[in-house]
Design a protein that fits this description.
140 residues, single chain, 6 helices, mainly alpha
Amino acid sequence: MNKTISLVAALMMISGSVAAQTFDEAFNAQRAMNGKGHSFTFEGKSYTTDHPEEVAAAAPANAANAKQLLADAKAQYAKALEVDFGWTLTKGLLSSANKALEAGEFRKSMEISARAQYHSRMGVAQYHQSQKEWLMAVPN
């Protein structure tokens, strides 16, 4: 797969049709090729392929951090619900994260909360994308 991608990139450079890449495009390409925890350079700066929620979940597993991450996930879910793009899966994740927190399973709670927060963030992004596509679909 990596050889194919490299070959395509090389052919694009030879043909002179290389388009400028946005950060999101570069991040998504690096994440798809290398998974989380990979470092890459974009416009001279170093970044990792970790989502912000994964970074937050990597904090020390204790009650305070687990409570904060769950609260952040609930707040992000509320934003997704405001635009009517709250996924039903997320509600179950929040419930599971809360149960793990109550059981003292802080690492588990943090990991589930991070997933819930990510899904909510993607729900809001999905809303914005649908609005943009809707505007593009409406004839002038």
